[in-house]
Amino acid sequence: MNITKEQIDALNAVITVAIEKDDYADKVEKVLTNYRKTANVPGFRKGHVPMGMIRKQYGKAILFDEVNKLLQDSLNKYIVEEKLDILGNPLPKEQQDFNWDAESFTFEFEVGLAPKFELDLQPQNGITRYEISIEDELIDRQVERIRKQFGKLISKGEILNQDDIEITGSFFNEEKKIDNQATFKLEALSADNRKVFVGKKIGDQLQLQTKGLFNDEHDLMHFLKVSHDDVHHLDVTVTFTIEEVNVREEADLNQELFDKLFPAGTVTSETELREEIKKNSQFQYTEQADQHFLNQVTDYLVNTTQFDLPAEFLKKWLRTAGEKELTKEEADAEYEKSEKGLRYQLIEGKILGDNNLHPTFDELKDYANSYVKNQLTQYGMPVDDDSYVDGIVSKILQNREEMQRINQQLVLNKLLEFYKANVKTNTKKATFDEFIKEVYKTDEA
User: What is the DSSP string of 95-123?
Assistant: First the structure.
C-alpha cells in the first residue's frame, strides 16, 4: 500500500491511496472461508459447499467491504501520523473508470486544511473588563424584595390611594380577543387612571382605554397579553373587573424568614442576611461581568484575526455531511451561517492547543465533583458522604451530554482566566446599575 499527498494550495490537498492485492487478499480469503463453514446451500452439507460457489456468490461483496475497511483505517492512520489538521472529512473524488474487477485500486480524497494564523492579544485600546461593586442601596432593595415576597397579603374592601395597593382583576375585549387576569400595583397606572381606580371595590367593572393606561406602555404586553408589535398601536376600550384588592404586609426579619431562605441555622441575624445577599450578588454580578468580557474578547478575536478558509471544499462537504443531502444553494447558505462560528472554533482550538489548556479527565472529574457539591449545598443536603457524591459524579461522567456540557464549561473557565492574564484590558469599576446601563445602553437597572 502506498499513500501520498499532493498539496494543491495552502488550504487544499489530495490524498491518494494505492491498494495492492497483497494488502487485502488474505483478509478476503479468511472471510470467504468463514462463510463456507456456515453457508446453507441446497444440495450441500454445511461446510462442504465448493469454494468456487462461495466465491462467485459472495466474493465481490466481501472484496468491497474489506477494501473499504482497509481504505478507511489506512486513511485515518495517515492523517494522524502526518498530523494533518483537516476541516470536515475527506471527500472521495469521483473516478469514472474505476474497476472492481482489477487486482489493484487507487482512491483519491480531497481534504480541506486548517489555515495557519497568529493571534494579537494586545488590542490598541484594550478591552473593558468590569469589576462590579455591591453598594448598600442594592442590598437594601434586595432586603425589601425579600420582605415583600414572603410577606402576607391583607385583603382590602376598596382601592385606597396607596402605591403598594395590589389589584387583581380581568381585562376583556372581544374584538381583540383580550381575556386575561392580571395583578398590578396602583402605582403602575398613569396618574389619570389611578384616579379612576381609587375608591372602587371588589366586583366593580371599569371601562378603560388602553392608550395611556399604564405609565409604561410595555406593561400592556404583560397584563393584557398582547404582542410587542400590537401594543404600540393598541387603542381600544377594555372592561376590567376588580376581583381582589390587597396590601402586602412585609415579613419580619426573623429566624423563621432566615430559615426559609437558607439552610436552617446558617443565618441568624439581619447583618448575616445582608452579608449573604452581598456574597451571592457579588458572585452573580461577577459572572455577568465575566461573560460580557468573554463575549467582547471573542468578538475582537473573530473580527481582527484574518485568515482564509477552504470555502469551496467546505461547501462541497456540507452538501453530504448531514442526514439529508443539500443542494448547492442550501450548502452555500449553510456555510455563510456557520463561517463565523467555524472561525472562532479554529481560534479557540489554537489558544487551547498552544497553551495546553485542553481539560484533562482528572480536571473534568474535579469540576463535576465541585458542581455536585454546590448543587447539594443549595438544597440543604450533606456533602460529607464521599461515596454518595462519587456515585453521582460517576453517573455524570458516563453521560455523554453531561460530559460535553461540563467540558465546555471548563473550557470557558480556562479561556476566561487565560484572557484575563494575557489580553490587554482596561479594568473599570462600576455599580451593577452602571454596568447594565453602559453594557445594554439602557437607563433601566
Answer: -TT--TTSSSEEEEEEEEEPPP-------
Is the CB of residue 272 less than 8 Å from the CB of residue 259? no
Provide the grid cell at 187. 402605582
Do residues 215 and 188 lie in contact, with contact meaning Cβ atoms separated by under 8 Å? yes
Largest Cα–Cα distance in the chain?
104
CA distance 396 to 36: 46
Q: What b/e sequence results for 388-407 when a residue is b if at least 16 CB atoms lie within 10 Å of its CB, and e otherwise?
A: ebeebbeebeeeeeeeeebe
Contact of 181 with 169, CB cutoff 8 Å:
yes
CA neighbor of 108 nearest in space, from 122, 121, 97, 123: 97
> What pLDDT shows up at residue 380?
67
Does an H or E element contain 169, and which?
Answer: strand 165-173
Residue-wise pLDDT tens digits, 352-395:
999 999 999 999 999 999 988 888 877 767 777 888 888 898 99
Residues of the chain with pLDDT under 70: 380, 442-445
269 CA to centre of own chain:
39
Distance CA 404, CA 410 (A): 10
Hey, is 158 helix, strand or coil? strand
Q: What is the pLDDT of residue 442?
A: 56
Task: Report how far residue 116's alpha carbon sits from residue 121's, in angstroms, rounded to the nearest whole number.
Answer: 16
Domains parsed from the chain with CATH numbers: 2-113 (3.30.70.1050), 127-135+263-307+357-440 (no CATH), 152-249 (3.10.50)
Query: Cα–Cα distance between 365 and 267 in angstroms, integer?
Result: 32
pLDDT at 385: 81
- What sign results for the dihedral spanned by CA atoms 410, 412, 413, 417? positive
Compute the distance between CA of residue 329 and CA of residue 333 in angstroms, rounded to an integer. 6
408: cell is 465546555
User: 87 CB contacts (<8 Å, ≥6 apart)?
Assistant: 112, 113, 114, 309, 310, 313, 314, 317, 342
Distance of CA 159 to the CA centre of its chain: 46
- The predicted pLDDT at position 425 comes to 95
Find residue 172's DSSP bridge partners.
179, 239
For the chain, the distance separating the N- and C-terminal CA atoms, rounded to the nearest angstrom, is 68
Bridge pairing between strands 12-19 and 2-9: antiparallel
